Amino acid sequence: MTKILIIIGIIVISLLFSSLYIFLIYQNHKIKTRNKDEKYQKINTSIWKKVLKVVFRDKKHFAGLAITITLTAILDVLTPYVNSSVIETFFSDTPNFDLKYLYIGLYVLFAVMYMILIALFIYNAGRIEAFVAYELRKEAFEKLQELPFSYYDKTKAGWIISRLTSDSRKLSEILSWGFVDLLWGFFTMFNVLVMIYITNVRLALIITVIAPIMFSIAMLFRKIILDAYRKVRKTNSKITSAFDQNVDGAKTTKTLVIEDKMKAEFDELALTMKKEAIHAVIRSSFLWPAILIIGYIGVAITLGIGSNYALGNVAGVVLKVSTLYLFINYTTLFFDPVMSISHLIGNIQQAEAAAERIVELIETPLEITDTEEVKEKYGTITNPKYENFDQLIGDVEFKNIKFGYNENEIILDNFNLKIKAGTSVALVGKTGNGKTTIINLLCRFYEPLEGEILIDGVDYRKRSQTWLHTNLGYVLQDPHLFSGTVKENIAYGKKDATMEEIIDAAKKAQAHDFIMKLEKGYDTDIGEDGSKLSQGEKQLLCFARTILIDPKILILDEATSSIDTKTEVQIQEVTNNFMKGRTTFIVAHRLSTIIACDLILVIIDGKIQESGTHEELLNKQGLYYNLYKNQFED
């Protein structure tokens, strides 16, 4: 009867493993078929090498974590050994109660050591978690400062935000506490193997045979779980982006009365996230029970074989009840870290999905970068050497410029323009003809495919981006302000500005009067993106901010197109005064705002079709004349 039960048990276990193996192979095949064109098809060791370098920077706490975990693992192995010794000492045929105080002392010592060691490894793991999150966010944010304007044209804000928040948090958590499980599991299994082979080789072989089977199944689960969590992270980025767009476009949503449509779209996205998350959890949930079953099969076999030989002779060694107890405890103790590590593998899949995205951001190649020689002299964007910056006069020359945002759509071809310092230049023409492109190239938000842009007679690539941007003042069509007070926003480009300088800039921008009417004057909080101010007031503050940094080159990109006529007159007066002695480029559709410019350029299809002063161009009665006449009639 016993043999029949054993045979049935073997058949059931074989069927279980066969079914599990076929399921894993099928799932892996589905992943390969679906993701054959994706960038990441398998675990990328290079990703982990880069991430682990961040962990190892905190050598002090990493070493502290390793030491405390090692000592904890040793205690875990010693505790069953002491318990076995207690059984042998007090429950044998010849008990010895004289040693009771020794064992009591040992248990008290173990309890104190556990308390100290657990407190220390929690402390060190927590420090590593905070350190990793800090380092990843710092590197990612520093990269964002270095990336050019073109990167933000092509990348959604939600994608970036999720890298700096949820991805970095998840990765730091799994790395720090994952190390706890990994180190504890490794040292515990090693110590257990040493102890059981010393005690009884035959029973030790049971564990040795089962362990590789457990790890093999865990590795088969790896790709399945990783694929599921990659999909979850992708959808999470879309949700973050949806939140960002909904908040920024709240006014538009309400004025168009499309709240119900926005809700429906978000519900669909959130439902997709829910389904994918559940699918990922289901896949992960298969791993733990599979490992659990195999582990306790090992315990059962050890118990079965060991009980047959209890109080008998196994491989020349007398197997006592205390020894059998020790083996059962060690078998359980050995498979606990195996199961813990297997569970960690599921978390690591999540961590890798996050790690891939963070590393992708940190290692995004720079489309615009300074040469090493330039960095040596002028420093980097995040560490500039201001003391080496050359004075900028303001001469600008576009020399044989060829540029397009992609190679198939060239906007400027053999474009040439030479502007003397202190000249005010207006760029006019229909939308899409190259006006903003000229400005983007001048500001080095993009670089020409061919040709040179000279600042004071020197190719601007021979000086640093920071040198150029420090000397630029840029006022956009849609003014952007930051959360904080009026004075903080005016001084945003010059953090060390005095209150006198801030007030002087506000007066020159004709913003002082309305500021003083605010509840707290310059200390008034203006809300998110200046939500408490009118469009005209926001634009006046942007002018004040630009005036304070005193740029040598001024860029006005449709700066008066979104404000009322009264404020436009104010800004025009401010602009006319501020342009004096500065090289100024103005992109404008309202031709009334550029009458006083020294030079007006009519740009058609990326080429200068007409140039001259307002009076000269009117007298020609050409393109500018028609544009001006049509606008005047309107």
Major sheet: size, sense and barrel closure?
Answer: 6 strands, mixed
Sequence of strands across the biggest β-sheet = 8-9-10-5-11-12
Number of helical segments with 4 or more residues? 20
Helix content: 55-70%
| Large-scale geometry | elongated
Ends distance: 103 Å
Stretches where pLDDT is under 50 for at least 5 consecutive residues are 1-27, 31-41, 310-317
What integer is the average pLDDT? 79
Query: What portion of residues belong to β-strands?
Result: 5-15%
Radius of gyration: 36 Å
What is the β-strand count?
A: 12
Coarse structural class: alpha/beta
Short account of what is shown:
Helices cover 64% and strands 11% of the residues. With 634 residues, it is an alpha/beta fold.
Map the helices and strands:
Elements: H1 2-34, H2 45-56, H3 59-90, H4 100-146, H5 149-154, H6 157-199, H7 201-248, H8 250-255, H9 259-308, E1 312-314, E2 317-319, H10 321-362, H11 372-378, E3 396-406, E4 409-419, E5 424-428, H12 435-442, E6 450-455, E7 458-459, H13 465-470, E8 472-475, H14 486-490, H15 499-508, H16 512-516, H17 535-549, E9 553-557, H18 565-579, E10 583-587, E11 599-604, E12 607-612, H19 614-620, H20 623-633
Parallel strand pairs: 5-10, 5-11, 8-9, 9-10
Antiparallel strand pairs: 1-2, 3-4, 3-6, 6-7, 11-12
Helix pairs in contact: 1-7, 2-10, 3-4, 3-6, 3-10, 4-6, 4-10, 6-7, 6-10, 7-9, 7-10, 9-10, 15-17, 17-18, 19-20
